[in-house]
Design a protein that fits this description.
Two copies of one chain form a homodimer. By secondary structure, chain A is an alpha/beta fold. The first copy, chain A, is about 45% helix and about 15% strand. The first copy, chain A, folds into three domains: about 5-55, lambda repressor-like DNA-binding domains (434 Repressor (Amino-terminal Domain), Orthogonal Bundle); about 60-155 and about 295-320, Response regulator (Rossmann fold, 3-Layer(aba) Sandwich), CATH 3.40.50; about 160-290, Rossmann fold, CATH 3.40.50.2300. In chain A, about 45% of the residues are buried. Strand 2 of chain A pairs antiparallel with strand 2 of chain B, so a sheet runs across the interface. Chain A binds a DNA duplex through helix 2 and helix 4.
DNA sequence: GTGAAAGCGCTAACAT
DNA sequence: ATGTTAGCGCTTTCAC
């Protein structure tokens, strides 16, 4: 193995000079820097990660705890992972993966000095991991918005604002009765706060604008989507606009409307709140509000890095603002 | 931070005794072992991963290179990841994630002594990573079966055997004309060898049994599935049995047959080759051959571990054998 | 069965 | 601007 001493000898300098030339932590004459770099190149030197971690108390590794329970949408999980890994590399960090299933994983990573910081995905309203994470002393970022963050940093999509934005868009088009095809009941029961926040935004927005609002929590199955659509159509004041916050059900909802001979957007306007690629893979261009999972992951990494730089910076929660992309699934309400 | 010296002092023994008591690498009297364990417990000691890696040349970490390119089925990717992480933990190893997108990732992990072994997912027929991986000197396991494994270990599902098994099952039921709804053309073009192997098994099996065989490479879209089904039904000798190896298209194929008034299995028998959960989420219980992604991941880890134990053990390729689970989508052919 | 001590390869004072 | 050196916390000889 090529060590820093080999490089120093080869370049005719001290080991510390090599270290500093590589880290840039003190000024080095251009000449020696070049000699060092050449030596590194010629010998194919790579710093030993363990040695570096031992000496510097920095691992350049981030711990990521993934949910692998049934019922989570793996496409979204992968988007988070992509955003996290990509952004971490930009900060010269790697990502160590652990699963929710392993009980002592957080302690192992933090106390064993395997990672500089932790990112927890899929945080619920009352999450038993939080108290333990807060006790670790490692910078920890939560993806999600628990009832009590216990002093930890949070990042998430602003689901309430997304719902309000969707409602306002439809209201502006003249719709006065709006249906929401919501997430599965199981998601709500599980205590995932994004569902609550979305519902709060939906009801709050509708009330403020004087609209009639109906909600159908919808299992992510074809039959579930069908039933939800039918339930909404059976109402006295049948909604002329639909908000779909359920990526699994979206295709079935569209199908189901077509089956009933309901035209989009002539008879019903439709706004989806889902990852952009889901909306864009529909046969008709859907008006949608993107759930930017990859960006959320990237922001989580940035927050972790900021915390490592300035450990006593104020703790904050960041909520990513929604944007609506217009497709051909929304139109002004036809006055009857 | 609690160090091994703290533990030694607390237990009244030498640091080496603590180390050995914990690793079991030399015999320790029952009494001192207990004293050490108590001290570990009381102080909450966790070995420093970097220090351990530096001293022992072992990181207890596995590197996993994931494909994040568009077009890979993320559900299957997540199944691999689950199998790998879970099995790695059983061997007291963690998993470090890198993406295909980063060019020098393999060298970084291996030469920087960040991992003990590497697992490469989604290996293609002619994969540029292989030569570089072979040059690393780290144990490397390939998931997939390239044309030239360059001396590296491989593990994959036996797609050829799966196709033969499906063909034989249908032949045994009296079917003489079989259609294959295959993977997207893009997958075949990309040089993913599983598609080739499946096609070879399909044609070989059909020929040996004297059956008529037709293939439709099928984009993973509703329209693609529809077109494929219609193409097969337009043939002179319309197939009375279908093999679907395209998890994205499976639901659409089933829908499309229903739309045409084709009953399963009365008019057409259907065998799917796909992950079990995809088959089981259909409304009708489909006869299927599972693609056991999680098991493949677990086996990859086992191969890596075996190699670390015995670095000069013979290199092998492991192909997981298919099993067919009967549902209600296959039935004897009605003799006209 | 146990202890003492020499590194593992690096960083970061402390020198000059 | 560069060199010297004392650790970081652990494993593993070597010695008893």
């Amino acid at each position: 193995m090529v060590t820093i001493e080999d490089v120093a000898r080869h370049a005719g300098v001290a080991t510390s000079t090599v270290s500093y030339a590589l880290s840039g932590k003190r000024s080095i004459s251009e000449q020696t820097r070049q000699r060092v770099e050449r030596a590194v190149e010629e010998l194919g030197y790579r710093p030993h990660a363990g040695a570096r971690a031992l000496a510097s108390a920095r691992t350049n590794t981030l711990g990521l705890m993934l949910p692998l329970r049934p019922g989570v949408d793996v496409r979204v999980v992968m988007e988070f992972v992509t955003g996290i890994v990509t952004r971490a590399r930009a900060f010269d960090h790697d990502v160590l993966l652990v699963t929710q299933a392993e009980d002592a994983a957080l302690e192992r990573l933090a106390h064993g000095r395997m990672v500089d910081a932790l990112i927890l995905m899929d945080v619920e309203a009352a999450d038993s991991r939080l108290a333990r994470a807060a006790a670790l002393g490692s910078p920890t970022i939560l993806i999600g918005l628990p009832d009590d963050p216990q002093g930890l940093q949070c990042v998430d999509f602003d689901f309430a604002a997304a719902a309000r934005l969707a409602v306002r868009h439809l209201s502006d088009l003249g719709h006065t009765s709006i249906g929401l095809i919501g997430p599965p009941p199981s998601v709500v029961e599980r205590g995932t706060t994004f569902a609550e926040r979305l519902l709060a935004g939906f009801h709050g927005g509708a009330e403020r604008l004087g609209l009639t609002a109906h909600v159908e929590l919808t299992p992510p199955t074809h039959a579930g989507a069908l039933a939800a659509v039918e339930a909404l159509r059976r109402l006295d004041e049948t909604p002329t606009a639909l908000i779909v916050h359920n990526e699994a059900a979206l295709p079935s909802v569209v199908d189901s409307l077509q089956m009933h001979g309901v035209r989009i957007p002539a008879d019903v306007s439709l706004v989806a709140i889902c990852p952009a690629d889901v909306a864009q893979s529909q046969s008709q261009p859907i008006t949608f509000i993107d759930i930017p999972a990859e960006s959320i992951g990237a922001v989580a990494v940035e927050m972790a890095m900021a915390r490592l730089d300035r450990p006593d910076a104020p703790v904050e929660t960041r909520l990513l603002r929604p944007t609506l992309s217009e497709g051909s699934s929304t139109a002004p309400r036809l006055t009857p």
